[in-house]
Structure formats: structure tokens, C-alpha cells
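Homework help board

Subject: predicted structure for assignment chain

Our instructor gave us this sequence and asked us to write out the predicted structure in C-alpha cell form, then describe one feature. I got the C-alpha cells but I'm not sure how to describe them. Can anyone check?
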Amino acid sequence: MRSTPTPANVRSSRNNILNRDFSLGGVILLKRQNYFELKSQQMKEIILDVLERLLQMADQYTAHLEKPSDKKKAYILQVEQFVNQSEERVNDHILELLSLQPVAKDKVKELFGISRIAGLLERVGDQLINLLTISDGENAAELMPMIEQFFHYEREMMGWLIQGIEKNDRHLLELVISHDQYVNRLNKGTYQSVVHSVQEQEKITESNLKTIIMSRFLERLGDYLVTIAKIYHDFLDTRQASDE
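My C-alpha cell output:
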């Protein structure tokens, strides 16, 4: 004979159900947080991989200027394709996260920042391709000293950016930001030097034009690296504020 449930039994049963539901909700929330962290780590690894490839791309570019070869040029173009594809991969990860689960406001801001970083890396690749296109000629050797001056700083900036993102190191990111002053100074000095040369020769040569254009490309490349460092630095500040 089935016993009639008492109010106490009903309350006990309801509490068990509620406790189980809260437990399941906690598991679901934990899984969502873990999935977000997993995707964030994957995107971070893509960004670091792209930065390392761009550093290799810069090295191959200067090697190509010193001793041109189809193999080096092909490698540079191949890396540029990889960079473009990586931007698409990052954005695919972001769209997946936004479509599968609710995302907190601060996390949404971070995702859009990551998307912006991927876009800026693609622009760095574009600048290197622009340099390759303009310098691919007979007077490439004349451009080498100017390019190496810029790359002296920008290689360091890329290296600090890689380490700063990998280790979440604010100091290294700040080094990237502060070194932009040297790149800007080089751009200004290059322009003034060309203007002085033109005034002495009373004519503008192809080399003069290329020097000014390439100096501008190199200065923009540095600006992109600085913007990436600033975005990631803001990530770290936001995370620290939310943890406190």
C-alpha cells in the first residue's frame, strides 16, 4: 500500500532536486568557463605562432635582399598566406564561443581585442610584402642600411611581444611600446635625409622615392606592434582588476 507523502517528505524531496539542479548548474558553468579558457589558450597559441612566423619572415626578407632567390621569396609569400589564414582561424574560434554560450561583458571585450590583434598581425604581414614588392629590384642593396636600422628595433619589439604575451609580462609589453619612439625617430630622420639629398642633387631619384615609401611602411609596422602590445597590456590590467 502506497504511503501518503507528508509535507516534510515533500520538502525534503524538493530540496534534493534543487540541490541536484544547483550542482548541475555549477558543473555546466564550470564546463563553460573551462571551454572559454581552452579556446582563449588556442587563440593565444595561434597569435604567438603568427608572431614567430612574422619574425622569420623579416629575417628571410633581409636575407633575400642580400642574396635574392626564388626560394626565399616563395617562403615569404607562403608565410603571408599562413598569417591571413590564422586571422580567419581566430575569428572562427570567437564566433564559435559567442554562438555556443553566453559570454560576460568583459570577456566579450577581450574576444574583440583578440580579433583586433589577429587583424593587426595580418597588416604586419602586408607591410612586409609591400617592402618585398618595392625593394625587389636592382637598387635593393642601397636600401639595406635603412631597412636594417628599422629592423634592429622591430626585431627586438617582436621578440618582446612574443615573450610578453606568452608570459603575461607587462614589463616586456611596455618595452615594445616605449621603443616605438626610436622607430618614429628613424622615420623622421630618413625623410629629412632624403630631402637634404634631393636639395643637393636638385632631382628626385627612384631610390629617393623608394626610401621614403619604405620608411613609412616600416614606421607603420612598428605602430602595429605597439598597438598589439597595448591591447594585450589592457587584457592583463582588466584580468587583474577582476581578480581583486
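Reply (TA_rk): Your C-alpha cells look well-formed. For the description, you could write something like this. Residues 1-30 have pLDDT under 50 and may be disordered. That's the kind of observation they're looking for.
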